[in-house]
Every structure is written in structure tokens, then in C-alpha cells.
Specification:
Pfam families: HHH_3. The chain has 103 residues and is mainly α. It has helices at residues 2-22, 27-30, 32-39, 49-55, 61-74, 91-97; strands at residues 42-43, 101-102. The protein has a two-stranded parallel sheet with strand order 1-2.
């Protein structure tokens, strides 16, 4: 069964490739949950936990509350890199979100 499926797909690919190359695909179709968050600028010094969780990739409500706790301890964030003091936020997550973060 698997061989037949693979063979059928291999035979159909040359016929479908011209259609796939010319078919426009919107960003909303590819990743609808990311487009709104990627366009959102978030001020980490004023945002509440729900706003942080929505706008930042990899940040849920628990981590957002940890960000607010650190913000309260520091008074305010003076540098985006201070977010790495929150457990679970490392260089990779910071890089993913850096364009959206405003101080």
C-alpha cells in the first residue's frame, strides 16, 4: 500500500508542480496564529500578563507572570536582554521576539 502511494505521488508531482509554483498562498493560510503576534509591538514595561502571552512567541501565561514579577523587582526593564533572567527565556526565544519588544 505504501509503495503504491509513493509511486502515485511521484508520478503526480511533475503534473502538479506548475500549479503549485503559480498558486499564491497568503501568510494567513500558512500560519494564522503567528501573523497577528508578529505584527504586534509590545511594551514589556507596561503590558499585562495576557498581552505578553499573546504577543510573544513561546511565552504562556505562567512565563508572562514571571516576566511581570521580574519587572516589579527591577522597577522597569532597561534592556531587552534582562528578560533572560526569567526561567525558560534564553537567547533563542529572545531572538524570536526581539523585533516585537519595545521598552
Amino acid at each position: 500500500m505504501l509503495r503504491k502511494t509513493f509511486l502515485s505521488a511521484a508520478l503526480m508531482l511533475p503534473m502538479l508542480s506548475p500549479m503549485l509554483a503559480t498558486t499564491p498562498v497568503s501568510a494567513a493560510v500558512l500560519a494564522p496564529w503567528q501573523t497577528a503576534a508578529q505584527q504586534t509591538q509590545i511594551n514589556i514595561n507596561t503590558a499585562d500578563a495576557e498581552q505578553l502571552a499573546y504577543a510573544l512567541t513561546g511565552v504562556g501565561i505562567k512565563r508572562a507572570k514571571d516576566i511581570i514579577k521580574l519587572r516589579d523587582e527591577l522597577g522597569q526593564f532597561s534592556d531587552v536582554n534582562q528578560l533572560m533572567q526569567v526561567k525558560g527565556i534564553g537567547p533563542r526565544m529572545l531572538e524570536l521576539n526581539k523585533d516585537r519588544i519595545v521598552l
